[in-house]
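the two lines:
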Amino acid sequence: MFVEHRPDDRGQAHTLEAFTAALLLVAGLIFATQATAVTPLSASTSNQHVENQVEVAAQDVLTTTKASGDLTAAVLYYDDGFVGAGSGGAYTGLPDDPGHPLRAALKEAFDDRRIAFNVEVYYPDDGDVADTTMVDMGSPTDNAATASTRVPLYAADRFGENDELVLADDGPDEYFADPVGGSDTLYTVVEVRITAWQM
Amino acid sequence: MSGDSAMRSTAGRRAGAGRGLRSDGRAQTVLDFVVGMSVFLTAVGFTFAFVPSLLEPYAVGEGATVIVAERGAARLAESSLVVDGPTATLSTACTLGFFDGAAAGDDCAWTASADDLHAELGVADRRGLNLTLTQNGTVGTLDPDGRDGDPVPMRAGPAPPRSESVSAASRIVALDADGDGERETHRLTLRVW
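prediction for all of em together
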């Protein structure tokens, strides 16, 4: 067909050119919306304000519960896995036990808002850092926020379902973290980390 | 030169238009222009109309209320209602005085009570502010202990308008609202419009 093409046989070339130009413009626009992280079309889970709010909520939960002692109580609510967590040793959501020290704070901050969260406890382990999971609600999204705080545990602290165990005596065998040694008062220092994200 | 000959040849062909389909090679030239330009201009118009909304999340106007809400909530949760100790752990006495419209004293960090939120947060009067402390979604109340009077709801400012865009920022705070000596978890929400 191109053999017979002459300069005069332009047919609908202008329309085709216009469609090509329009296609380029719209394709450029679509590329721009896909390339930037925050646009009016992207899901609200990647909104910076949402991320800030989730992060500050996680930080507030840690600060307030650490001040009231609930965070320490939750870390010590451990008896071969966190108490009431079942065979996995980690809660799969908000702890069911209404008396759980962290339940009220986590409910108000995250669960009521349908925000997923993981709570992990990091502890020194023979010169390394090991971790155990307290709440495991799955893999965080790319837009998750984290906050962490450190909690000291003392040798006289009691743990277990009914506080029947003492860290200094039963800790090395029963508790997830081993003593750091070097002191009779301090047992270890753990870092509690909350990772929260909008589902 | 070749252009001249092409034009001449077109003119020659146009003179004989209508005689046969093959003789007029350019067929719908004028209509083609109209369709082509309108498609192109529509696309340009659409693109330019869409670009401002692309920049919407970064626009100053709405972003300002978000920042005011975040800073205002931070001020309330970290200094105004806290006596000493960690942030977000509120003092019951200071919170009660704040929402009860008491006069500012030396004991608490706030300088203007909930009746004048704009002064306390340093926000221009033309902005609307609404502050609530909620637990499980309902506004909490404080009992004015040792004094007569109804429980004080922890709420300040007019209801947010439906017609305007409202920004909200929340903090999780611990406050002993029922007077049992233990702090319960509340949600402090500041709305700005």
